[in-house]
Amino acid sequence: MNEEFERKQATEWLVRSAQAVAERPESRVNQTVLKSALDCYRDVFAVSVSPAHTSPIPIGLRELGRNVQGYQEYENIIDGTVLVLIPGSTFQMGSPIGVGDDDEHPQHEVTLSPYMIAKHEVTWSQYGKFCAATNRNLPQRPRWNPYDTHPVVNVSWTDAKAYCAWAGLALLTEAQWELAARGGKQFEYGTADGKISHELANYYGDGTRYPNTSPVGSYPANPYGIFDLSGNVWEWCEDGYWPYKVGPATDPIGAVNTERRVLRGGSWYFNPVRLRSAIRSWSVPDHQDYYVGFRVARAPF
Ligand SMILES: [Ca+2]
Predict the structure, then answer these.
(1) Co-location of 24 and 171 in the same domain
(2) 133 CA to middle of ligand 1, Å?
(3) How far apart are alpha carbons 131 and 279 in whole angstroms?
(4) In this structure, which residues have their CB less than 5 angstroms from ion ligand 1?
(5) What is the pLDDT of residues 203-230, one digit of tens each?
(6) How many alpha carbons fall within 13 Å on the CB side of residue 240?
(7) Distance 246 CA to ligand 1 centre (A)
(8) Residues 133, 40 share a domain
C-alpha cells in the first residue's frame, strides 16, 4: 500500500467516523469507532490528528448551507444553536479620537482567526433544556413572562459559562463580538445597515415595538446574517474588563481571573447610545439582571 493511498483511505475513514459522531454524538459506538480510527492512523499523518482538524464538518455540528448573506451556517446539535462562520478578518476595534467613552480608546487594529458566532441570543427554550439536562433551577422569570423564543435573562456570567460547557460551545471574546457587530463594514451599530432606529433594534424610548425583550430575530439581520447584536439583551463576553493596549493585536482576550466581566450591545432597557458597536460595559461574574443574557460561539473548531 503506497503512502498516498494509505493517507487517502485514512482521511476518508476519519471523515466518515467524525460525521457519524456529529449525527449521533450520544452514541458510544460512534465515539469508539472514531477513537479507533484516530489511533489506527495516527502514524500515517505527519502531524497529530484530531476530529476537529480532519472532518470538514466539526464534531457536534450539522451543516446547514449558506445564509442569504452568503456565510456558512451550522447547527450545534446539543442545543440547536445556529452558528454563522465568520472568516478571519482585520478591523478597527474601539473608537477614533473624539468619539465615545474613554474605555473605547485607543482605537487599534485587531486581526481575528475564523470563528463561529450564534445567529441569535440564547433563548428561554434553549436555557430550559440546559437546566433540565443538568438539574439546575430556571432563572427567575421576569415580570413580563417572556415566551420561549425570547432571550433568556437573569443569568450570570457563571451561568453562561456552565451553559457553554454543557453545549460544547464558548462565550465570544470581546473582539469577536465587536467584529460581528461591525458587520465587516466598521458599522457604528450592530444592525442591518449600521444605523439605529426602532425598526432596526430593540431599545428603550418612544416608538419602541416591544416594551421589554423581543423574540430573537424580530429585527433585520446584519451583513453576516446575525440578529440582535445591538439591543434586546446585553451579552456576556468571555473577557475580563481591561484597558485597551496601544498597537495591533491578534486574537486578543482581556484580563483573566478578574471580577469584572465584559457586557456588550445594550438592551431593551437602555438608550440607543448604549447599543453602539464600541460600547463596553461590565459586571461581576455572579450578577444577574432582567436585561442581561448571552450569546454563544465556537472557536477554535
Ligand atoms: Ca443583544
Answers:
(1) no
(2) 25
(3) 31
(4) 228, 232, 265
(5) 999 999 999 999 999 999 999 999 999 9
(6) 7
(7) 28
(8) no
